[in-house]
Design goal:
The chain is an alpha/beta fold. It has 19 helices and 16 strands.
């Protein structure tokens, strides 16, 4: 067969592959010029093109940052597994990192990418060979797990959360994040891939909102809760815009004299469709929906207006971790102080240890800026977090507020009293003023006087109240009489037998 006959025969074979023919024409022309066998040259070029096509297909199915499968590949694998013959239960685990956005915002995308790679490595090590692991977007990962009676999926979820909780060292930064995991179970071949992934996603959000669990298994109740949260997010947006929220103010008094020394502003949402919403539910909702900055700004504005009305009574404002870590938070506070005409020493910013667990250097810088402008900084809920003593050693606070959980056994068990005494003495040794919150009876007030606690807060002192009632509290403060009387009495400390 001549070269031209071979060329014509090859084109006839490839006539159904329209996109190949032009390429072959070029190849064949080059081959004729060089005297190379047309068939061998075309076969080689087509093989190279096939390999390239496979590489492109693989790249399209792979996450560029972690090297894991991406959402497309994950969905395909899940559908294949569910459609495959045979019985058996599978589970989809949907994982979302907590505080990932803060890492990106404060330490940069390079560290954020390093964190994603580190999480991927730990997850890969925990899953048996054959299970599918993917990064399906942003800070979200998913896994397909074949359920094995010898390896409960609940135990795997707990192990994953614990593994992610361990700190990561990335470019000389120690990074702490958490994880929320949702689980959805399905039977082959009756379950839908899309539905299982949706259920696992819903369960993950339920775990994120939970105050006790880091993972949840999907049940139908969760679908209703997701719809409710979506409705509440829209309602909260309207409430902020239309000034439908409210602040109440709880008195903080001198432990010896009962004189009002400051108040804490506490957020309330009195007229939502679900009734009054507590801050414990409202703040997580605002954080998850991205409304926390607008909400935090509203709280600061209202508190500063109240300071102007009270004139010489400082107001403490709780600041969420996301709000505190936001770039330029100290500048925002400064601008609001200037706009309101309020002296900085009349504003107190309360932060919890949750603010400090990540990005300690950034927190230290923000605290320093606030104190330099004259704002008082309070470490709130002391004793409930992670490394309280190290924070006191590395950060400059003005006040230490002891968590109300310490009040539970105070006066009943000697150990509880000894711990309280130690915490108060520790605060004083660091030249901090100490506030005890959660005071509910005169016994606790008397004992805290004896232990030299500086300030008291709680329902025994005064419940959170509207600003107009706070004016009345200042005029008719019976706490002075109660605490003056209590200071003249010496409570009997519990004996060692009470433990």
């Amino acid at each position: 067969m001549t070269s031209l006959q071979s060329f014509a025969s090859l084109l006839a074979e490839l006539r159904v592959i329209d996109w190949v023919a032009p390429v072959v024409c070029v190849i064949c022309a080059a081959a004729l010029a060089r005297g190379i066998t047309l068939r061998s040259l075309v076969d080689r070029k087509l093989a190279e093109m096939g390999e390239r096509e496979l590489e492109l297909e693989k790249a399209a199915m792979t996450d560029a940052v972690t090297g894991l499968k991406n959402r497309i590949a994950f969905s395909r694998d899940l559908e294949t597994l569910l459609d495959r013959g045979g019985q058996g239960e599978v589970a989809v685990l949907f994982l979302d990192l907590d505080r990932f956005k803060e890492v990106n915002d404060t330490l940069g995308h390079k560290v954020g990418d390093g964190l994603l790679k580190g999480v991927a490595t730990r997850l890969r090590e925990m899953l048996p060979e054959g299970d599918t692991l993917a990064r399906i977007g942003g800070d979200e990962f998913a896994a397909i797990v074949r359920i094995d009676p010898t390896r409960p999926v609940d135990d795997l979820a707990i192990a994953i959360v614990e593994a992610v909780y361990e700190p990561f060292l990335i470019d000389d930064h120690v990074v702490h994040v958490g994880a929320s995991v949702g689980i959805a179970k399905g039977m082959r071949p009756t379950s839908s891939a899309d539905e299982l992934l949706r259920q696992a996603d819903i369960a993950m959000y339920d775990a994120k909102f939970s105050k006790t669990d880091s993972f949840r298994i999907f049940d139908e109740r969760m679908s209703n809760m997701i719809a409710l949260r979506s409705s509440m997010r829209l309602e909260l947006e309207r409430a902020i815009r239309n000034d439908e929220l409210a602040l109440k103010y709880q008195p903080i008094v001198d432990s010896r004299t009962g004189e009002l020394t400051s108040v804490e502003a506490l957020l309330r949402w009195p007229n939502s469709s679900q009734g009054e919403i507590s801050p414990g539910d409202l703040i997580p909702l605002a954080e998850e929906s991205g409304q926390i900055l607008a909400l935090g700004g509203w709280i600061l504005d209202k508190a500063l207006l109240a300071v102007r009305e009270l004139k010489n009574v400082p107001i403490a404002v709780n600041v969420s971790p996301i709000q505190f870590r936001h770039h330029g938070f100290a500048t925002i506070v400064s601008d609001k102080l200037l706009a309101s005409g309020v002296s900085p020493d009349l504003l107190r910013i309360e932060i919890t240890e949750g603010v400090l667990i990540s990005h300690l250097d950034a927190a230290k810088s923000t605290i320093r800026q606030l104190r330099q402008m004259g704002v008082v900084v309070v470490l709130d809920d002391f004793g409930t977090g992670y490394s309280s003593l190290s924070y006191l050693q590395n950060l400059d606070f003005d006040y230490l507020k002891i968590d109300k959980s310490f009040m539970k056994d105070l006066g009943r068990r000697q150990l509880a009293t000894q711990i309280m005494r130690s915490v108060i003495d520790l605060g004083h040794s660091l030249e901090l003023k100490v506030v005890a919150e959660g005071i509910e009876n005169d016994w606790q007030a008397r004992l805290l006087q004896l232990l030299n606690c500086d300030y008291l807060q709680g329902y025994y002192i005064g419940a959170p109240m509207p600003l107009e009632d706070l004016h009345k509290f200042r005029l008719n403060n019976d706490v002075r009489e109660k605490l003056t009387r209590a200071s003249a009495e010496t409570p009997e400390l519990p004996s060692a037998a009470n433990g």
